[in-house]
Amino acid sequence: MTFFSLGDLMVDVVARLFGPLAEGSDSPGVISYVGGGSAANTAAWLSRVGESTTFIGAIGDDAAGQSQVEQLHGLGVDVRFRVDRTRPTGTCLVLVAPSGERTMVPDPGANLSLLEHDVPVGEFHAGDHLHVSGYALLRDSRDAALHAMRAASAAGMTVSVGAASAAPLRQLGAAGFLEMVPDDALLFANEKEAAVLVGASSDTDTDTDTDTDTDAGALASRLAAGGRQAVVTAGSGTAAWSNGEATVSMGAEPLDRPELDTTGAGDAFAAGFLAARARDAAPEVCLRDGHALAAAACRTTGGRPDPR
Predict the structure, then answer these.
(1) Does domain 2-19+29-162+252-298 match CATH 3.40.50.1980?
(2) pTM of the entire structure?
(3) I want to staple 39 with a disulfide (CB 3.0 to 4.6 A). Which of 58, 93, 133, 260 is the partner?
């Protein structure tokens, strides 16, 4: 099986803060430049666990873009990319709080230029899998992402979609996003994204929320509809899978060190889950493997595996 991962590739400027952000003043921290982008991250983690992986995206005509392609190649990822002669390679400022929680300020750059004819549909074959980053559906690359999903379904491939991020989902609207997700797709979302997509009334931005509407299992069950399956990850460490009839939840093992960076943890979780699912593993095993890769991502700076 080959996994195709379509969507965003970024250069992440990761600022790990030593304390709360001091608006209007200095906030000491450590800054790193690392590879990022949800689709590229997922491809990299899939390759790390031994899967055959191809990334589909766009870079700028610049050193940053070439460096990103070389890094993905070094991680074992095959790359199909458009070079945008006018926009730079995408960049994202990632502020990582001492708790490990991250806030992102993305400039998509060349990611906006991905077109339908950039998708290598001639390489799509029955039994392969297409994973689409939700960011591709929320930006000018939407036509390319929709074209890829139609071609994948026609070729007999399975499809999964990541829900991107809560704020842009809220701006677009849940109905508009869910209409673009194939009926038989596997949808990945964290609890905040899932709450937006199901219209949950409670505020999932608070750590103290215990409303059952924002429980990972309940959210996954509500997101699963028709033939669609859903996986929801929660900040509490619980993840849940549902096909609308059955729901399975599993908590993560405690991480062994406090200095964490959650950037890319959701992308790594998706990779672990998909790799196990490709082996026809039970949902419990898929959740376990997703947690394992997410934990590995939390122990690295940025959203990709450390080069071997």
Answers:
(1) no
(2) 0.92
(3) 133
